[in-house]
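User: I'm new to structure prediction. If I give you an amino acid sequence, what do you actually give back? Let's try with this one:
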Amino acid sequence: MAGERIAVIAGGGSGIGQGTAIRFAGEGWRVVLVGRRQEMLDATVAYIAEAGGLAEAFPGDVRDWDRMAELGALVAGDGIDLLVNSAGGQFAKLAADLSRNGWKAVVETNLDGAFFLARHLHGALAKRKGSIVNLVANLWQKGAATMAHSAAARAGVVNLTRTLAIEWAEEGIRVNAVSPGYIDTPALIDGFGALIDTVPLKRIGTVEEVVDAILYLAGAGYVTGEVLTIDGGLQLA
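Assistant: Good question. You get back a string of structure tokens that encode the predicted 3D arrangement of the chain. For your 237 residues, that looks like this:
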């Protein structure tokens, strides 16, 4: 694998993670896709292979410390150039009605998962002076009714991004985040399509536009600790 750029992409079986995997493979990267659903990972790997790209699946839950440690051991030898933390999930619920399990499921997936991956892939990233791009839905920027669990977790990932950027800078590891607004993934269109009129640009964004930002941050050698917002001006409304 000498000279080959390698990216680990969590959530690579669907949505923005899948779009990122396909785009990066098309740019000549070898991609390792992480996710809970083997069939979705396999479908994406097959799609990339048919297009002539290099991809492999690593099934696992980002909330599983031991499984993510296995991933870290797997890539430690060659090292990696990029980690994209795109695994996530949320659901609408008023804070007063939110159960302990509901809170834990969202916070553990979004915040714990981002840390577990970064922690266990730290050595592989240091080996190649690689970078991390965390995906953080823009709920963290202001109060978000019915999304206390998700907004709190995303805010935690933003602070984690900035803290790791400081701690790991001497090793040449850059850590940034992309903060998408309403993007044309199936989950968003099904649940939030009616909110398009709240976006100043009066449209939802595309997965490709978010991937453009991830690709930029992957190569922006003098950028670290930043959060790049891709939301059509939604955070200004």
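You can read the tokens as a compact description of the fold. Here is one thing that stands out. Residues 80 and 194 are 40 Å apart (CA to CA).
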